[in-house]
Amino acid sequence: MEKKLHSLKRTIALFMALVAVICFSGCIRYSLTATVDKDGTVDLVLLYAMQDDYSSDVDDTEDLEELLRETGYEFKIDEYDEDDYTGYTISILDIPLDDLERTVTDGLDMEGFRVDENDGVYTIRWDTTDLIGDAESSGVDGKMLNQYGGFMRFCITIPGNSISDNADEVHDTTYSWNLLGMSEPVLISFTLAGSYPFPYRTKVMVNKDKTADLEVLIAAVEEEDDALEERIGIFEDNDWEITEEEGKKVTAIFGEKYGLEIEEISEELQALGIGYEGFEVEFDEDEEIYSLNWDALAIAGNADTSEISSSAKKDYGPYMTFVLELPNSAEDDNATEADGKILTWELLDMDEEIHAEFKVKKQGFPMWVIGVIIGGVIIVAGIVVMIIILSKRKKPPKAPVPAVSAVPAPAPAFIPTPSSSSIPVGLPQQPASPIAAPQQPASPFAPPVQPTSPFAAPAQPAPAAPQAPSQSMLPQFGQPSGFQQTSGLPQVGFQQTMGLPVVGMPSSNEETQQNSDPQLPPPENQG
Questions:
Q1: Which parts of 140-254 fold into alpha helices (H)?
Q2: Given this model, what pLDDT does residue 364 score?
Q3: Cβ–Cβ < 8 Å for 269, 260
Q4: What is the pLDDT of residue 240?
Q5: 206, 282, 370, 429 from 341: Cα distances, Å
Q6: pTM score, two decimals?
Q7: pLDDT tens per residue across span 126-152
Q8: Please, are residues 47 and 31 in contact by the beta-carbon 8 Å criterion?
């Protein structure tokens, strides 16, 4: 390799000598063109030419061919004759991209040319200060070249769109710099998979907890190829989760990341190195507002839509869209479409950079806490209801309250005994009732029977010492209603029950008793 580079140095030294001669004339055409292939090889083409008046200075190429042959690289020399400029183009083919810096710097003796690689992203920088200084010291400037149709430039064609560059002109995937007009080094970044189209859709979802989720639709294709695999590999190398979704005719490949800080969105997208340079999210602490800006005009301008199928558009909408989903309405935006809190930009229709301002309002009471509280209340209420139901099942039923009959129960017939023809033996006790009047003693000489119901009226006091029945003990007709003490006979007329008068008619047994007692007046004379 060192022998090849040494021979190439001698060849380029001759080139530079010829260029110096041309520069003094002020009418030159000089360019270095690099074409990068997907396989990582580079073809270099060096053009030098001058107006016809000076063309004899570069006619002899025999020594040049011999030197190029010794390098071991495949090369070719072609004549150049265009616009009164005559010269040659020297092509060196199939130089590995990893050796491009050494080939240009050591072999072509061009100082300041650098090639860096990082995670599949190649960056070329070329500080042309020395080259431009030599040209300008020879009396060459941009105005003079323009006047005579000359130029000094660097061109590079890459597999796809660049990630970033400062080129003066861009045509498809060819980037050009006017070296005499450069005030800064040449700069371009790209990938070998750069020929793959820009992601179909980029979606940022901002959450209420000030985190963000990213979803990039890498592609929607009918079949995968090596270029797509390389593009997917870039996402995987940056710790993105890859998922697939089967559509009607296409397969969608997504890259996803969750739970990022909002300020980390820019870093995550730019780290992919596929065109998100310029995507910025900033936070104003004083205003508590986020500002999102993305200059995607260059990407959209260089987009290749020829490989986007109609099936993909049917399933996933327009190609090259950016979606921002917010927890609240945006403060300001220039979205091409807004659906509530979802903003959409169609990059191919944009004539200005994407811009949106939004706030993430403080959260209210957490919904999960509210759910726990409601659930707890429901559980407690259920327990209380169950306790009540079980307690009712265990409690014995209350005895039914018998209905009070308006007519007293019939008393048994009085049967006189030999020992007493006028005083009846005590009658049987009446059945107890919770609301019935207290039982009367069977005989004026017997103690009263105590009531058995808790609702019965208190028992009558015991009568005085036993004495023979007198006329005053006989029923008095025509007297006011109330208890009337008789000789063990059932009460006729009003009876006191729970403090209320109860009116009843005497039963047939009572009539029998009254008629059988010679001391009682006839029934027809009763009150």
A1: 142-148, 226-237
A2: 53
A3: no
A4: 96
A5: 10, 20, 25, 90
A6: 0.45
A7: 998 887 777 666 666 666 777 777 888
A8: yes
Write the CA distances from 31 to 44, 106, 404, 502, integer angstroms. Answer: 10, 18, 127, 134
For residues 331 and 359, what is the distance between their CA atoms, to the nearest angstrom?
7
- Contact status, residue 64 vs residue 11, Cβ threshold 8 Å: yes
Q: How far apart are CA 442 and CA 488, in angstroms?
A: 5
Would you say 184 and 60 are in contact if contact means Cβ atoms under 8 Å apart? no
Q: How confident is the model at residue 117 (pLDDT cuts 50, 70, 90)?
A: confident
Residue 95 and residue 40 in contact, taking contact as beta carbons nearer than 8 Å: no
Of 428, 420, 470, 426, the closest CA to residue 444 belongs to: 426
* Phi, psi dihedrals of residue 276, rounded to the nearest 5°: -90, 10
Please give the Cα distance from 408 to 415 (Å, whole number): 20
Q: What is the DSSP letter of 417?
A: B
Cα separation of 254 and 523, whole Å? 114
Q: What is the pLDDT of residues 302-354, one digit of tens each?
A: 676 777 888 899 899 999 999 999 999 999 999 999 998 999 999 999 899 99
CA end-to-end distance (rounded Å), the chain = 153
Q: What is the pLDDT of residue 508?
A: 46
State the CB neighbour count (10 A cutoff) for residue 311: 15
CA distance 166 to 178: 11
Work out whether the CA dihedral 223, 227, 230, 232 comes out positive or negative: negative
Q: Is 205 exposed, middle or buried (0-12, 13-18, 19+ CB in 10 A)?
A: middle
Q: Is 137 within 8 Å of 131 (Cβ atoms)?
A: no
d(C-alpha 233, C-alpha 215), whole Å: 16
Could you write out the DSSP letters of every residue in 223-268?
A: S--HHHHHHHHHHHHTTPEEEEEE-SS-EEEEEEEEEEEGGGHHHH
CA distances from 254 to 74, 245, 264 (A): 42, 8, 19
Dihedral over alpha carbons 10, 12, 17, 20 (to 10 degrees): -160
Burial class (CB within 10 angstroms; exposed 0-12, middle 13-18, buried 19+) of 270: middle
320: left (phi over 0), alpha (psi -120 to 50) or beta: left
Q: What is the largest CA-CA distance in the chain?
A: 181
- pLDDT band of 209, cuts 50, 70, 90: very high
Return the structure tokens found at 376: 């707890």
Distance CA 438, CA 460 (A): 8
Angle at 438 between CA 432 and CA 441, to 5 degrees: 100
* Three-class SS state of 408: coil
CA–CA gap between residue 265 and residue 271 (Å, rounded): 10
Confidence class for position 357, pLDDT limits 50, 70, 90? very high
The C-alpha atoms of residue 49 and residue 89 are separated, in whole angstroms, by 8
